[in-house]
Amino acid sequence: MMLAGAVIASLAGLAIALPHGKVKRQVSQLRPQYDFIIAGGGTAGLTVADRLTEAFPDKTVLVVEYGEIEYAAGLWDPPSTVWGGQGFLASYFSFQSLPTPHVNNRTAIVLAGKVVGGSSAVNAQFFDRPSRYDLDAWAAAATGSDGKNKNGWNWDGVFPFFKKSVTFTPPPAEVAQQYGYTWDESAYGNTTPIHASFPPYQWADYYLGRNAFTQAGVRTRQECAGGDKDGLCWVPTSQHPVTARRSYAGLGHYADVNLTRPNYDLLVNHQVTRVLYPNGNTRSGPPRVEIRSLSNNTFFNVRAKAEVILSAGTFHTPAILQRSGIGHAPVLRAAGIPVVLDLPGVGSNLQDHSGSGISWNYTKPGNFTPMPSDMLSSPAFLADAVAGFNSVPAYGPYTLANPNSAIFVPLPNITANYTSIVDKLRTMAAADGNGTVAAASYLPDDYRSDPRMVAGYQKQLRIIADLLANPRAPSQETTFQTGTALRAINLHPVSRGTVRLNLTDLLAQPVLVYGTGSNPVDFDVYLAQSRFLRGMVKTEALQAYGAVEVTPGEGVQSDEELLEYVKSGLVHSFMHPCCTAAMMPREEGGVVGGDLKVHGAKGLRVVDMSVLPVLPSSHLSALAYAVGEKAADIIIREWR
């Protein structure tokens, strides 16, 4: 059974090259029209394309992708010799935000996949899911004044699609026993060629972090993919269990299926620039799709008979909408674009995980082996590592990606002062006797005066306050695999940013404003998380080897000193941007409804991470697959 899986995976690896003859690269290769057109061949977009072409063999689907078909290496494949350094990744966009004044004018660097498969082809392969409380918070944000959560965007409504979206393979018994892996197969469905598994290898000091976490009072959970993840978790990697190669949408939802789907077309090296409604009438959809060839800079239109689905990601989906005249009216006018549909939430509400960290040295030798340094110091060890990577089944250090151990800690378990943080948010969200809302002053300048956006932000603050007060809802993530450093990731920031068109070149990459720290409550959380993290160095697990804090260092103790340390070393983005076309009511700044249709725009949906209203307590890859699966289910049920 396992060897059969290895053969399948090997063929799938080759398949990424085989469909090149079927891939479209110019307008002359396209059909006159399509039933469905999907802008973006990424994680969610390819999931939808796979399911639609399967469900409707008589309907045609066109996926338009900016990038190419490429081999997508894992996070750490040969010839890399320094652990944590990325190998030959597939192509990606590299975004840099404008300077952020609240954190010493530093900028955020964000990468996103520019390849068939999107960010699932270039991410760190950390395959966790949100807490059930995150999905229930999503439902609360999406609920309108009628009190209805349409289409079930809560934990119970999304969990079946998490199960459908991945095949989990438990590790061999001897590997599980060696490293202490635990799991619960009932959290998975095992029905799709998107794979997750635990690597058959860990560095020699991997257990130190886990021991430090438990000694700091963090509970241990058997499984964190079933909705409850407040504690110490084993997190699987998005890789095939036999070959240990990256498993991603370009394989599982394109190369593995498209050769048998004559109704499935993929156009690469093209950019969807905008959608066009006749005479600007958004009730006359579906719109035509304007596409630009990246090879010769020519433009052409393609017609969709059923609908258009934007799946271009958190940055590019709002850019397409804004170029189409769909967005915040003042922003569109500033860009010289006629207003077709005034939706101020387009490109607003930008959120991302951020956080600071600590480091330490050991003063007593641990003599751990094997360690990442052995890749450089021992030619024999390196040669065996390469041989292991090319074996079936694969073994050795090259089967690793991102850490598999992580803690997800609720704020009440981090600081006794959590109630003061929660109270600040609730006070901000309330209007005073004159109707003034304090929270509005922390919003970006170009939408703080819009009452719809203020109302939506008030709602989000109330929801996040409830999450932070919940002793079961994680607010901090910290991972560990090896080494002498830890980071605290703020899972529910309350600062907001924007994605706007580049006014000097509307077709260029959009301009990002990361509002990191614009709401001061985030700094209260950063400080609490940093102090909690510093306690790890004092645990018996690390003190057994004479751990001594290096950064921020014992000389940094006051809130003022620690705050300056946080500002100077903060990571603005852990590559999880979201929420720029939020699923919220239109009167609260929302862009899409529970059916993922753009408010007021017939025949136009959004299916990617831009539809999240608030950032969840997870990396976004597994969630993107689940959203793609649920979106496809909604679309299929509607068109049947």
UniProtKB/TrEMBL annotation:
Belongs to the GMC oxidoreductase family. The keyword Flavoprotein applies. The keyword Ribosomal protein does not apply. It comes from Canariomyces notabilis. This is GMC oxidoreductase. FAD binds at residues 115, 272. Keywords: FAD, Flavoprotein, Signal. It holds the Pfam family GMC_oxred_N. The active site is at 576 (proton donor), 619 (proton acceptor). GO terms for molecular function: flavin adenine dinucleotide binding; oxidoreductase activity, acting on CH-OH group of donors. InterPro entries: FAD/NAD-bd_sf, GMC_OxRdtase, GMC_OxRdtase_N, GMC_OxRtase_C. GO terms for biological process: secondary metabolite biosynthetic process. Its cofactor is FAD. Residues 113-136, 313-327 form the Glucose-methanol-choline oxidoreductase N-terminal domain. Residues 1-17 form the signal peptide.
